């Protein structure tokens, strides 16, 4: 049985195209109904988004490229495994539930290597690339994407739909430097990209990490950002002082390895008891317990479970 695609981390251009049947191009100006900016992306004439079984897709017989670097495909497969496929392939329907690949053969082949059963795709009926490009750019301006989705959308518009940096900057109301800096997020290691996509580190953190040239150092510092709650300014200072490039001392690593199983067990028990996520960390000189809460009511519930007397006192003060 094929592996299911990793979900929940965004779809790049797929987030800009409504799922559904192809929308015909209006025959007269003004025939498209009013569409509020808060209603999401506009229907795209001549294209729609669909999850397609990989076995239903055949390669384009007119594709001139016959040789694909196996190592590069393996790296792309690793990235898809970590982050998901943020750039959907582009296909056309040939009838009978079958599709022919138009763009994205490397993505299609890498997904096959992973054993994925379905792949996100833009199903295209029009041959007018400019029409699709302009509609997608318009939707990119309207839809709120996370930083990695935005970067993937920019990259696919540049590579698959022939957009230019200048067109993107003008149409989405961003500077060319913003476009370039956002695209650079795709150069981060896959597991760091996954943190950005999941929102555990911000785009500002990610841009600060890009000043490091060592992927291992980027990964270590990304883990510190999440574990220690570092601000973007703190990350910039760590990078500028060269602290991020130094690997942890072997003795420190051994010292941290011993208590880790016990701490993980304790954190799991506390999480079950308080019905929320609890982290227990032990540093060189001190430790800390971090208890997460979702709302003020949730916080009140947790404090009541930890210290009922203190919770009653706080309620009395509020009254």
From TrEMBL:
CDD domains registered for this protein in UniProt: SPO0J_N
* Top-rank taxon: Bacteria
Alphabetically sorted, this entry's keywords are:
Chromosome partition, DNA-binding
Q: The ParB-like N-terminal domain covers which part of the protein? A: 50-140
For this protein, the record's Pfam families field holds:
HTH_ParB, ParB_C, ParB_N
Family according to the record: Belongs to the ParB family.
Please state what the protein is called. Answer: ParB/RepB/Spo0J family partition protein
Q: Which organism is it from?
A: Sphaerisporangium corydalis
